[in-house]
Specification:
Radius of gyration: 20 Å
Number of domains: 2
Shape: elongated
Strand order of the largest sheet: 6-15-14-13-7-8-10-9
CATH superfamily of the largest domain: Methylesterase CheB, C-terminal domain
Length: 365
């Protein structure tokens, strides 16, 4: 029986410090796409092509013979198809990260987000003819390098509590705020599925995704969490038992009005340069809730969320992060941990328990 990767993230296979280039496999039924992607990868001495395949079946067969770090996977192929093959790919090569190369159509968003929820680490739009320009090539190479990085962080302290402070030291949360990016969707689905159905604290989510993906993303989270999920806008009330997600076209900020907490849409530049960004969500929530909030920082590139986490912790709130072993990229959670702002470092299946532990009586229907 295949492992259920929808409810568990297995730690990546540790290989120690890298002694050679990042090994990349390209899986696409288009010879043109395979050729162009191969040329981009081979243009960087830090990368090498370990294999190519024109079908998912061929890729799975090759994975039993070669070791790879990153796979570029097309989802729409004849035969098994990338989405159907993904669980087997992840099972066969537990050390590899999968970068889905997808269209931005609604069907493409549905398939891509399904892949990300199943364990694919990141996505990149497949360009149209003539779209392999310098910016696209740079973005592709940056993503491959981030996913292929295997050296453990020297400050990673493993899993568990990083502070002697008990949960009662921090202010009781009125709101749960989750920030995520590369590799975070799979972890986010695990956390939301694990929360009890009668858990009533509102949940805010900022996930780095294109704006066109957000309606599909909202539907996906609503199914995973079994609770109403909406895209936040200006003046959207923050209600018990509901999830609000950043729109993708702006930051989700929080303010307190006479009727309680509500969201505000902002496009002001963020410290991280991301849109939407986790920092404005946490900064504004810390002030609007007077620190009565809990931040969860999941897998992601960069350091988005560290500044907002500091504001929250300075106001009496708490921040918990995903551990390095289960993160596709330990950038965002690692930055919060390195800044000594995280009270705990936990795998996704334990994060839901931590949220429940910190919830007070008002958190239950």
């Amino acid at each position: 029986m295949q492992p259920d990767r929808s409810t568990l993230i297995k730690p990546r296979v540790a290989r120690g410090a890298r002694t050679g280039p990042i090994r990349v496999m390209i899986v696409d039924d288009s010879l043109t796409a395979r050729t162009v992607f191969s040329r981009v990868v081979e243009s960087d001495p830090a990368l090498q092509i370990a294999g190519t395949a024109n079908s998912a079946e061929q890729a799975i067969s090759q994975l039993s013979k070669i070791d790879i770090d990153v796979m570029l996977l097309d989802l729409e192929m004849p035969g098994m198809g990338g989405l159907e093959a993904l669980p087997k790919i992840l099972e066969t090569s537990m050390s590899a990260q999968v970068l889905v190369v997808s269209s931005l159509t609604e069907d493409g968003a549905e398939h891509t987000l399904a892949a990300l929820s199943m364990g694919a680490a990141d996505t990149l739009q497949k360009p149209q003819s003539g779209g392999f320009d310098r910016d696209y090539r740079a973005t592709l190479l940056d993503k491959i390098k981030a996913l292929g990085e295997t050296e453990p962080s020297p400050v990673q302290a493993g899993r568990g509590l990083l502070t002697a402070k008990s949960p009662s030291y921090f202010k009781r949360p009125e709101v749960i705020a989750i920030g995520a990016s590369t590799g975070g969707i799979h972890a986010l689905n695990i956390v939301l599925r694990a929360l009890p159905q009668n858990f009533a604290l509102p949940i805010l989510v900022t996930q780095h995704l294109p704006a066109s993906f957000m309606p599909v993303f909202a539907r996906q989270l609503e199914v995973a969490a079994a609770r109403r999920t909406r895209i936040a806008g200006d003046g959207t009330p923050i209600r018990s038992g509901e999830i609000l997600i950043a729109s993708g076209s702006g930051h989700m900020e929080v303010k307190r009005s006479a009727n309680g907490l509500q969201t505000v849409l902002s496009t002001n530049p963020s410290r991280s340069g991301c849109l939407p960004s986790v920092d404005p969500m946490l900064d504004s929530l810390a002030k609007a809730s007077n620190g009565h909030a809990l931040a969860i920082i999941l897998s992601g590139m960069g350091n988005d969320g560290v500044s907002g986490a500091k504001t929250l912790v300075d106001n009496g709130g708490e921040a918990i992060v995903q551990d390095a072993e289960t993160s596709a990229v330990w950038g965002m959670p690692g930055a919060v941990s390195k800044a000594n702002l995280a009270s705990a470092v936990l795998p996704p299946e334990m994060l839901a328990d931590a949220i429940v532990e910190r919830a007070g009586a008002a958190a239950w229907k």
